[in-house]
Design a protein that fits this description.
Oligomer: single chain
Number of strands: 12
Low-confidence stretches: 1-7
Radius of gyration: 18 Å
Order of helices and strands: EEEEEHEEEEEEEH
Number of domains: 2
Largest sheet: 7 strands, antiparallel
Number of helices: 2
Strand content: 35-45%
Structural class: alpha+beta
Amino acid sequence: MPDFTDDFDSPTVTLSDEAGRTLDCFIEQTLTVDGEDYLLLLPVDAPIEVFVWQSEDDDDEELLADIDEGDIDELFPTAKAVLAELDLTLQRSAHTLTAAGELPEIQEENCFSLEVPSDDASESTVDEFQMLATFFHEDEQYTLCTPLEPLLFFAKRDRNGQTVLLSPEEFQRIQPQLEDQLFDVLE
């Protein structure tokens, strides 16, 4: 897992969203496709995911489920207080929740895998997470986690010099060229 607090020498940019929230990111790579520069970005602070424990209708087994974006506002104060006990500051950043501060050491018993359906109904991916804390809100149990794999964004600069995320359509269009260049960099 990357260290989200010690690499202050890398150049940074700030992403924004429609709500005016910001997300500071390190520029990991600059790639050029068809004469246009694209940026591979890594958030400065650790990304945070919130999951809720839900039981299947006819089964006592509980499963972790992603929460709706609309539920975050209601859960945010409690989640922030719980992470503060770990000396982490939960932030309502653009595009993802983040936590500033030093994450606890990764311990195998606090890690889990979660199968996530992809846009293609026939496929799914497995994401791995480090569980940071749990809390209850209105009789439901929630878990705060950070992904073990880095959360990366592709962006570009617009005409005004602002850094903006690629639209899904643009990313789809140039993904093969970006991947080719990334593989070349890794070799």
